[in-house]
Model the fold of this input.
Amino acid sequence: MPDILLDFSIKVAPAQVLEAVSTPAGLNAWWTKRASGRPAEGQEYVLWFGSEYDWRAKVTRCVPDSEFELQVTSAGPDWVGTKVGFHLRGAESTDVSFYHTGWPVANEHWRISCYCWAMYLRLLRRYLECGDLVPYDERLEA
Done:
């Protein structure tokens, strides 16, 4: 199975990164159009990207200041069962190891998602380091 693996640094503490990747307000700042859920293992998240993309995920890992992972339970067929997660290391600054694992095949959707994740994670860094909030409809063009 192909995976998406990206490593990068963000010049803020791990607690700030974890909040941005695990809370609805944080996710809405850089990835989702509207999210809901609670960052605790076993909790369900709604990840809404528009009427055609009303997805669900379950929290499978949530470790303060170091890990957060969602397993996608309802989405497009290529995403169902995949895991999206973050490993965080550091103190003043954070080294982020991002993964999106469990893709069934390296198809066109996987290739597009490789690009999109790189773009979204860049927005995550801009949001945390600079306070930039890019409107949802402009995120992949920013």
User: Anything to note?
Assistant: Residues 108-130 form the longest helix (23 residues). The first strand starts at residue 4 and ends at 10. Residues 4-136 form a domain with the Alpha-D-Glucose-1,6-Bisphosphate; Chain A, domain 4 fold (CATH 3.30.530.20). Strands lie at 4-10, 34-36, 44-48, 54-63, 67-74, 83-90, 94-101.
